[in-house]
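We modelled the chain as a single entity of 352 amino acids. Its sequence is:
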Amino acid sequence: MAYQVEIEPTGDVIEVEDGQTILDAALRQGVYIPHACSHGLCGTCKVEILEGEVDYGAASPFALMDMEKDEGKCLACTATPMENTCVEADIDEDPDAKSIAVQDFMGTVIEVKDLTPRIKGIFIELDEGIDFQAGQYIQYHVPGFDEPRAFSLCNSSNDKKVVELNVSLVPDGEATPWIHNNVKVGARRKISGPYGRFFVRESAQKPMIFFAGGSGLSSPKSMILEQLENSCDLPITLFHGARNQEELYYSDLFFDLEKKYENFTYVPVLSDDDVQDWNGRRGFVTDAANEIFENDFSGNKAYLCGPPPMLDACITTLMRGRLFEKDIYTEKFFSKADLNAENQRSPLFKSI
């Protein structure tokens, strides 16, 4: 049995199969609803039920409080309709957003390599190419696990057939240790996507500043490659933070890009005080950014991807330097451990 769900204010009407979430049905039919974690953890996909009834599903009580249920709200990523329904979502029109329907793809692992002691690069050749915007992510279906895991696409959107995923080993995690220990060349894997609203706002025609830390380098790498390959001539600066040289992966690639493209600047920064044989910048990416931009970031667009403490520090630095919310974009992912985190709070910036 399928139900119809109307989504306001756009007026789109989607078909939702029995047991399918509103978000999954919408994305697979090319209808965008704001979302981030896709697992009921963050509250980004919260919508108001105008008509009809839904099963709320496994929504975190911190992402959807009982009071909000009483007010007629639900999470599109966990809610399944029980009858024809109408919901209202907080949808902002964006001239740079592409409407790409989510699909399932099968592919073969063609390369697995150690990028750092805790990050593996997994390269999958898809049977059919995936269309996406650089900065978006996919859901990787892990054998033996009920729910897929989200990973950003690291390759340029011009490369649709072979996708690269950077998988960081999560301490006390379940899926990432399995991936690190078991993924082999030749394995067949399923991915679903694309997801997310993290991409370059090209229509703004403003210089770009990227901040990346850990495996958060994935999206900026994809976005920067896309811009340079597509002949963007605006200034692009990448601040890449790592603890030591072992964790500063893809630095050779970015140094090569800096030599090839006059408009691209690469600024690697190491935070460990005891790092030897390093002539580059030390400390934090925010210190390097303040020095290079002389504490004035106005007139730029900033894209942030990395550990939450780094993102918070970058946002503070940018706002003190006269760059504000409308020009700052962040990408946040949530692990299953966040489901029981009691310190969840609404972020200053919406996750993209």
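As a brief sanity check on the tokenised model: The mean pLDDT is 92. The first helix runs from residue 22 to 28.
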